[in-house]
Write a structure and sequence with these properties.
heterodimer; A: mainly beta; five-stranded antiparallel β-sheet; 1 helix; B: about 200 residues; alpha+beta; two-stranded antiparallel ribbon; two-stranded antiparallel sheet; about 30% helix
Amino acid sequence: MGANHPLALRASPNRCNFCRENFIAGVEMYGGLGDADSFGLNITSHYLAPALAWNLPSGWTLRLSPGFGLNDNSHGLVLRWGVSREFAGFGEAVRQFLGRL
Amino acid sequence: MCPESSPVSAKRCASSWVAYEIQFEELFPASSGSHAVDRGVRRSANSSHFRGACKEQPETAGGRFSSGEGRQIGYAEIAKAPENARSKRNPFENDADAVTAGRKLFEQHCAECHGNMAVGGKKGPSLREEEVQRASPGALFWVLTNGVVRRGMPVWSKVPEPQRWQIVSFLKSLRETEHVSSLKLPINGNVANITPCR
């Protein structure tokens, strides 16, 4: 679970990569909930992590989130990072392709 | 490889472990045709249209909304805006920066369907028509916020409210630029002369 917020709600008039509205800061908490045999928090690790995402105007998003362990079962630090990209029109293309089959 | 690489009892494993996740996200309505890996911003396929892509304008010629169909389908939603939404004032009224920022946001989020310079495309109607230009800013904001899901227009509530108002500012400015032969608009921070597509 987590929450995040853009660093600026109003867009700047200029095209820019480093505008504040392109950055999203937040905090997230995650951890284990047991396994198939024993659901629960017993012997699970949990982390609290600040998170920062950078939305590039080109469509790419970079995310970085250093997580700090909250209990004895956790690592001291877990670094999560990610790169993502939205493919606009991909679903429509797939639908059209399947429609032709 | 660590045999106990799951977060459960992770500390028992002395070595570092690497995990990965792949997310596939479908943005509804499905007809908007957008898929995403995790999350990202929608990229306009026409983001460079101010750099001399006026030749693309004839997309309305064979488009879904090229005839009066757009009037019947797309524009009718504006009239459905409730009174309290219609009466909302644009906080960026008479703000020139909001128009420029709104145009940038329009390119990122809207131009893919509504076409270059909002003249209409295969998926969305022209936003230069009287129905749109006569509508109150609040009504346009309401449509933008709630979308027209069954007609394929996504809900844009994920875009921050001030940015939605900036898009509305841009849309309302189209009437004023309709008869202007050239505009001065910033591209990559530089001011450039641009001739609107006709």
